[in-house]
Amino acid sequence: MMVKTEQIQVKTRGHGEVIDITDAVKQAIRRAKLTVGTATLFHVGSTAGLTTVEYEPGLVRHDLAAAFERIAPRQAVYQHEQTWHDDNGHAHVRASLLGASLAVPFVDGAPTLGTWQQIVLIDFDTRNRSRTIVCQLIGE
Amino acid sequence: MMVKTEQIQVKTRGHGEVIDITDAVKQAIRRAKLTVGTATLFHVGSTAGLTTVEYEPGLVRHDLAAAFERIAPRQAVYQHEQTWHDDNGHAHVRASLLGASLAVPFVDGAPTLGTWQQIVLIDFDTRNRSRTIVCQLIGE
Amino acid sequence: MMVKTEQIQVKTRGHGEVIDITDAVKQAIRRAKLTVGTATLFHVGSTAGLTTVEYEPGLVRHDLAAAFERIAPRQAVYQHEQTWHDDNGHAHVRASLLGASLAVPFVDGAPTLGTWQQIVLIDFDTRNRSRTIVCQLIGE
Predict the structure, then answer these.
(1) What structural domains and CATH numbers belong to chain C?
(2) Residues of chain B neighbouring A54 (CB-CB closer than 8 A)
(3) ∠ CA A32-A139-A3 to the nearest 5 degrees?
C-alpha cells in the first residue's frame, strides 16, 4: 500500500467551462504503477468544482449551465460581491454546491468509469484561470 | 492495510427512484473482515448518483424529487436530447449535480452512519436500469 | 500506511449556519503525525452536510442560504413533515443535495486547500444541534 500525489494543471476560460480531466487521471494512475486503489481528486480553490458527466456538447455547453443558472443566477444579488466589489458571487455558490472533491476507485490500473462517464472540472469564475487539481492515489 | 473491491448490483425503475444500499455496504465491509477504514462508493454511469438520506417515504418518494424538478425540470429544453434524440437530459444534469461518489468511514466493522441516515442510489434515468456501484474498502 | 479516526464535535444553531472546521481538520492531521494521505470527512446525520467555501460573511450568511432557498424553499410542502409532524423537510433535502462526505488530500502534514478555501459544515436543521463529523485519515 502506498500514497502518490500529483497535480493536474488546466487552463480554463471560466464562465462555466467544463474541462475533461479523465485522461490526466488515467495517466497519473499509470505513472504511479498502481493496480488497485482510490484516486482522490480535489480542486484547490473556491470558484470551481469536480463531478462526472457524459462529455458531449449539449450537456457541457448548455444543459449544465442552465441548471446552475436556476440555482445561483448570475444576475442575482450576492453580498459576496459587495464585500469584494467583484462579480463572481454566483461562482462561489455554484462551486460550493458542486463540491471540490471526487473519489474514484481504480481497478486493473484504470478508473471504474462508465463508457459515457468522464471526470470534469467546471470552472464558474468570470475570467481565465489556471487551475490545480490534486490527484492523490492510495493503493497497491 | 489492504484494498478490497466489490460491486453492488441493483435493479431500478429510474424516474428518480431512491434505492437503499446501506445493507449491501455493511455486508461488503463484513465480508472483507476489515475493522477500520474508508468505503469509497462510486456509481458507474452518468444518469444516477449517490448520497445519504433518512430513508422514509415522504422524502424518498416526494420531497427529493420536488427539489430535483426545481433544479432540472423534466420538461425544460435539453440540448443533450437533440444530440441523441432521447428524453433523459434532466437525468444527466441531476446526476452530475448529485455526484457519483461518496466516501464513508467505517469503524468497528460498520459505517459511521447516523441512526436515520441511509446510503442511497438515486436513479434519474427514464427507464428500468441495472446499476453497478463500486464499493472499494481501504483499511485494516 | 495507517488509519486514524477522530471525531470533530461542533455546536450549531441550525437554520443554515455555516461552521468553519478547517482548524479542527488541521489539528487532527497534526495529532496523527501523518505527512501525506487523504482525510475523509463524514457528517453523521441527515440534516447537515459538508463542503468548502471562502469563509467570508457575505457568502456564509446570505449567498449560500439564498441558493438553498431556491432549491428547497423553507415554506414548500414536504411530505416528510406530514410523516413526522415536524418542520425540517427542507433541511433533509438540502443536506442530501450538499452531501455528507468530503475527501481532502493532505501533503507535508497539511490539507491541500486554497488560500480562500475553508472546510465547512452547513447545518440546515431548525434548532440548536450538537454535530459529529468523523475525520478519518489514511496515510503515512
Answers:
(1) 2-139 (2.60.120.460)
(2) 46, 80, 92
(3) 65
Interface test with A, best of B80, B88, B131, B135 (most A CBs within 10 A): B80
Residues in chain B closer than 8 A to A64 (CB atoms): 93, 96
pLDDT of residue A133: 98
Q: pTM for the full model?
A: 0.98
- B16 CB-side CA count, 13 A: 17
CA distance C100 to chain A (A): 11
d(CA A54, CA A35): 25
- 8-state DSSP, B93: H
Q: Do B42 and A104 count as a contact with CB atoms less than 8 A apart?
A: yes
The three cell numbers locating residue A129: 484561470
- Residues of chain B whose beta carbon is less than 8 angstroms from a beta carbon of chain C are 1, 36-38, 51-54, 56-59, 61-64, 66-67, 70-71, 97-99, 102-105, 107, 112-114, 116-117, 138-140
Q: Which three cell numbers stand for residue A24?
A: 490526466
pLDDT per residue, tens digit, chain C (140 aa), is: 999 999 999 999 999 999 999 999 999 999 999 999 999 999 999 999 999 999 999 999 999 999 999 999 999 999 998 877 889 999 999 999 999 999 999 999 999 999 999 999 999 999 999 999 999 999 99
Q: Low-confidence residues of chain A, pLDDT below 50?
A: none
- Confidence check: pLDDT of B97 > 90: yes
